[in-house]
Amino acid sequence: QVQLQESGPGLVKPSGTLSLTCAVSGGSIRNNNWWTWVRQPPGKGLEWIGEIYHSGSTKYNPSLESRVTISVDKSKNQFSLKVNSVTAADTAVYYCASGSGSPSARAFDYWGQGTLVTVSS
Amino acid sequence: QSVLTQPPSVSGAPGQRVTISCTGSGSNIGANYDVHWYQQLPGTAPKLLIYGNNNRPSGVPDRFSGSKSGTSASLAITGLQAEDEADYYCQSYDSNLSGSRVFGGGTKLTVL
């Protein structure tokens, strides 16, 4: 059973960079999963940020693509998220998740517990 | 504004049946892409409830079922229980958005 755990600073200054890591346990990051980031602003719905395969292939939400980078570290069995030039609108609970299958049919069957990141000076 | 449209709230009494709709368009649900449903209990991470339109992961009660027709999908919950009170989200794939995964805005289910 794959388990995911997010980590990173809970407070980021405006115009700074948000950086989070998701540790994968109970399975290899080299398996047939796509590794995903989803966020949820306080009191609002879910927003898909992007995803990465262990080969390094990525896919991003077009609305965030210019500010987002997702990377994978196979040696540490983890993947990471960076969001540049953050504003208060980036304040959210950030979840890492994973799913397998074809691009058009993939569901997120494993989720981390989520970590709240607040953008404030 | 979400690509997939859900009602903000639904409610039902214990034992009743409720449905939650998820309306999309020709570039997502209407293009025959799969719809998945997630349950988010208060203060917790989302949990996969239905995948591939109408399949339940192991451990999900058969009180939960999904269906899809045209540009819409639905989640039905029968024999409503107090523990079903949660937020529910639909999710699909959209070919118009560079192959993005899209979520509905979420529906708050209240068990009366």
Write structural notes for this entry.
The complex is a heterodimer of chains A (121) and B (112). Chain A has strands at 3-7, 11-12, 18-25, 33-40, 47-52, 58-60, 68-73, 78-83, 92-100, 110-111, 115-119. Chain A has 121 residues and is mainly beta. In chain A, the strands form two sheets. In chain A, strands 2, 4, 5, 6, 9, 10 and 11 form a seven-stranded mixed sheet that branches. A four-stranded antiparallel sheet of chain A has the order 1-3-8-7, with no helix packed on it. Chain A is globular, with a radius of gyration of 14 Å. By secondary structure, chain B is mostly beta strands. The radius of gyration of chain B is 13 Å and the shape is globular. Classes of the chains: A mainly beta (121), B mainly beta (112). The A-B interface holds A 36, 38, 45-48, 51, 59-62, 95, 103-109, 111-114 and B 2, 33-34, 36, 38, 44-48, 51-52, 57, 89, 91, 93, 95, 97-106.
**How much of the polypeptide of chain B forms β-strand, as a percent range?**
35-45%
Q: What's the Cα radius of gyration of chain B?
A: 13 Å
Query: Given the C-alpha coordinates, what overall shape of chain B results?
Result: globular
As a percent range, the share of helical residues of chain B equals: under 10%
Order of helices and strands of chain B: EEEEEEEEE
How much of the sequence lies in strands of chain A comes to: over 45%
Flag low-confidence runs of chain A: none
